[in-house]
Each structure stands twice: as structure tokens, then as C-alpha cells.
Design brief:
By secondary structure, this protein is an alpha/beta fold. Helices cover 37% and strands 15% of the residues. It has one domain: 3-Layer(aba) Sandwich (Arginase, Chain A). The chain contains nine helices and ten strands. The strands form two sheets. The protein has an eight-stranded parallel β-sheet with strand order 2-1-5-10-9-6-7-8, with helices on both faces. A two-stranded antiparallel sheet has the order 3-4.
Length: 310
């Protein structure tokens, strides 16, 4: 079986203005690097649009309707200091969620071994009823709920290695024993959550904060000593990755110093864990990454590792 790449042109239309780091060029850089010869074996498809039924497993109907109603005919609507609506925003967000859901379907039905969803906007800062941090709908959380609702999975793990803590995903699963949320991230840093003491109601929140200036040595130690043992003990039936690449040394929005080799190592370790309890099933969803060179190199390394057999 192969690796599936899901994308959609709507990701290029969500443009919230000159100088904003979460920009369409992020997807263009990824598309260019994945045109290389070594990626020709990827299965490729378009991300469908998510349904209200899928979204409302996580976000209330009233929240979804409020977002859709707030979309302007032209110009911008500022939701917070970082998060802006423009005419194409919600179409892109709906396809980003739909891509994550479709990836779960393809992996769970055995059509592909794993999948990478290269869409935007990101999602891991979106809380149950609050958009923030460039995020509107939490696609990885919706993907987890879809896996549980449709495939009756009892345990799903989400691993987030974005430089920013996924406060939204943590918020959604704080009191849920059936989903583990594990994260490495810079701390203290935006959005201010993610202390090691934040464990959730059932101990299924696992934070391994890193400090500014930490590099691969510290990241791998946090993964080896805290994250990977917790996921292994949890024994998930599906592993979801919030794949943010802004922990890269080149990224302007963080001060961690990871390289693409660190993302290769982490991806390999997660694939190995997935082989133990989840029949190798992994779905990776793009989150952050704002230096185009660091992003494209990291995505290439991550996706090529997904394509390898372990």
C-alpha cells in the first residue's frame, strides 16, 4: 500500500493580506517540493468538503453557523489579532476538515497505509467554540471523532509537534479518556498553554514543553522519555499527527532549532508505534510552518518517511 496526499485549490484562495505569515505560498512551496521524482509513487486526490454532521461532532452547530454567517462578501473580518475571515476562508477550512476526514476513511478502509493532508488554514488552536491563532475548525479533532463514530475505535492518539501548543485540541479532549493528546512545543510561548502539569481529567493529556533554543537533542529526549512511552502505553488504534513544522530552526514564529532530520526521526518513531497497536494506521495533517524553505524541506522529509516501510 502507498501513502495518500490530499490537497485542494481552495487552500490557495484563503489570503488574509500582505505580510500575514499564514499565507497561500505555504501550499505552493509544498506542492513544488512534492513534484520531485521520489514522490511520484504518492496516491493523490482532492480533499472533499466536510459536512455539518462531521464538524458538529466537535464544534456546536451554532458556532459553525456563526462562522459561516460572518464570512464577508469582500474585504476582511477580524476575529482576533491573528485570525481573519475573508470571502474564501471557510471554503478552505471546510476542505481542510474534509481532507482530514477523507484521510481517516482511506486509511481505516485499508486503501492506503497512511496519509498526509496538505491544506490550510491550520486547526489545532481552534477550541470547541473559539477560533484563534489562524485556526477556525479543528480538523485533527474532527478526524479523531470521525474515526470513533464511523469505525468504532476505542482509542485514538493525537501527536502534535508544532512549535505552538495545540490548546484547541487539548481543550476538546481534556475530559475524554478515549483520546490521548500529546504535544512537544516551545514554552512559554503562544498561546500560553501546555505546561507539563496540564494532564487532563484522565491523564490523557501529555505535554512535554521545550524552552527557546532547544534543538534536536532536547526534542528527541522529550519524545523518548515522555511522549512515546505514553502513546505506547495508551495503545491507540489510530495515530493522528498535527504536523506543524514551525519548530524548524529557520522559522520566524518560534525559537526551537529542529531540522528536517528531527522530523524524520519523529515520524519514524510514530510509524513504529502505530505498527504495534494501530495496524500502521497514521494520518498526518499540516498545521504550522512559516519559513517556506524550512517548511518545504521538512514536509518533503516527513512525507518521504511516511512512504517508507518500517
Amino acid at each position: 500500500m502507498t501513502t495518500l496526499l490530499l490537497t485542494h485549490p481552495s487552500s490557495l484562495l484563503h489570503d488574509v493580506g500582505e505580510g500575514h505569515p499564514e499565507r497561500p505560498d505555504r501550499i505552493r512551496a509544498i506542492e513544488r517540493v512534492l513534484e520531485a521524482e521520489k514522490f511520484q509513487a504518492l496516491a493523490r486526490d482532492l480533499a472533499p468538503k466536510a459536512t455539518a454532521e462531521q464538524i458538529t461532532r466537535v464544534h456546536p452547530q451554532a458556532y459553525l453557523e456563526a462562522l459561516l454567517e460572518a464570512v464577508p462578501q469582500s474585504g476582511y473580518v477580524q476575529l482576533d489579532a491573528d485570525t481573519v475571515l475573508m470571502p474564501h476562508t471557510m471554503d478552505a477550512a471546510l476542505h481542510a476538515v474534509g481532507g482530514a476526514v477523507r484521510a481517516v476513511d482511506e486509511v481505516m478502509q485499508g486503501h492506503v497505509r497512511n496519509a498526509f493532508v496538505a491544506t490550510r488554514p491550520p486547526g489545532h488552536h481552534a477550541e470547541t467554540s473559539t477560533p484563534m491563532g489562524f485556526c477556525y475548525l479543528n480538523q485533527v479533532a474532527i478526524a479523531a471523532r470521525h474515526a470513533q463514530a464511523v469505525y468504532n475505535l476505542k482509542k485514538v492518539a493525537v501527536m502534535d509537534f508544532d512549535v505552538h501548543h495545540g490548546n484547541g485540541t487539548q481543550d476538546i479532549f481534556w475530559a475524554d479518556a478515549s483520546v490521548m493528546y500529546a504535544s512537544t512545543h516551545q514554552f512559554p510561548h503562544y498561546p500560553g498553554t501546555g505546561a507539563a502539569e496540564e494532564r487532563g481529567k484522565f491523564g490523557t493529556i501529555v505535554n512535554a514543553p521545550l524552552k527557546a533554543g532547544d534543538a534536536g537533542t532536547e526534542f528527541r529526549a522529550a519524545m523518548r522519555e515522555i511522549i512515546l512511552p505514553a502513546i505506547k502505553d495508551f495503545a491507540p488504534e489510530l495515530v493522528l499527527i498535527s504536523a506543524g513544522f514551525d519548530a524548524h530552526i529557520r522559522d520566524p514564529l518560534g525559537q526551537l532549532e529542529l531540522t528536517e532530520d528531527d522530523f524524520v526521526w519523529a515520524t519514524r518513531e510514530l510509524l513504529t508505534l502505530a505498527n504495534i497497536s494501530a495496524k500502521g494506521r497514521v494520518v498526518s495533517v499540516l498545521e504550522g510552518g512559516y519559513d517556506l524553505e524550512g517548511l518545504s524541506r521538512s514536509v518533503a522529509a516527513h512525507v518521504h518517511t511516511l512512504m517508507c516501510d518500517f
